[in-house]
């Protein structure tokens, strides 16, 4: 359901750090209008509403009770995602939720079943993978530009969000950490390339049992670390192909946004999946005439990005248009559930130090057309 006539009404629940990125874009997309912002801290919601020209703000009920809002963006903390999304569905509205879909498989599946029974849609971040970066790379692979994809490598390592975030404790709680917080970007990208995941293996460690807030009013406060802060991961995909990944907030050396897909005829470098675009290159195999110790010179080909660069809210906009066109949206709840199932399986594999099969699967992985223009009124 999206009520007909004109633009589609959108509400936000959660007015924290990430809300700026959504509001910057949703207030520019002509197909939607942000009508209200709700937060447990009502003053924070009102401040964001004033900053972005949103007419209504206050508690969560301001959004849930508004009859002119068709879709609600859930920007709460991961542990609250399912409960808030269920409240949105109960209010008769579609859901776009920040990642992950939830922190528990049964609760997440219940949400999707409840929404489907009500004829409502669920969309799940990250929608960065719908930007020109990953989508152009995906089309290049489909064309055969690197031959048959064989394996992927991804890396996300640094010293942790407490160096910039004024309230970082939730990022080290159940449902977060480098795996559940940042893993969705990398796993979603790999699933777009290789298809659904069949099994995973992992090793995990905890660099320190506590962390300390470094900025803001709470600087100096210690908080517990509830999850592995470093994980080394292997992934096996249903359709063939493998991947290895590192997720760490224990590293003084910063190496983020690394996604490399190697095929039989080249290695494709994809932009940081926490962004919507960036350079895309293919490195070709060495000439068969190369003889060590000659200098290694390889052919590197630039891949021209296709599509309009936007930002967070792109997946919600695709869902709005998909409802109007009676087609599936790309970042579906089922996709988000498979990513969550994979991430939780990685946690279990690290705890058990063995391979764990991923029970869920996907019939197909959708794609955004190259001519999708978020700034065109449709």
UniProtKB/TrEMBL annotation:
Gene3D superfamilies to which the protein is assigned, alphabetical: Dihydrodipicolinate Reductase, domain 2 (3.30.360.10), NAD(P)-binding Rossmann-like Domain (3.40.50.720)
Domain GFO/IDH/MocA-like oxidoreductase, first and last residues per copy: 134-268
Keyword set, alphabetical order: NAD, Oxidoreductase
Domain of life: Bacteria
Endoplasmic reticulum is among the record's keywords: no
Keyword NAD (UniProt): yes
InterPro entries, alphabetized: Gfo/Idh/MocA-like_OxRdtase_N, Gfo/Idh/MocA_oxidrdct_glycsds, GFO_IDH_MocA-like_dom, NAD(P)-bd_dom_sf
One Pfam family in the UniProt entry: GFO_IDH_MocA
Residues in Gfo/Idh/MocA-like oxidoreductase N-terminal domain copies: 9-124
Name the UniProt record assigns to this protein: Gfo/Idh/MocA family oxidoreductase
Species of provenance: Microbacterium paraoxydans
Lineage: Bacteria, Bacillati, Actinomycetota, Actinomycetes, Micrococcales
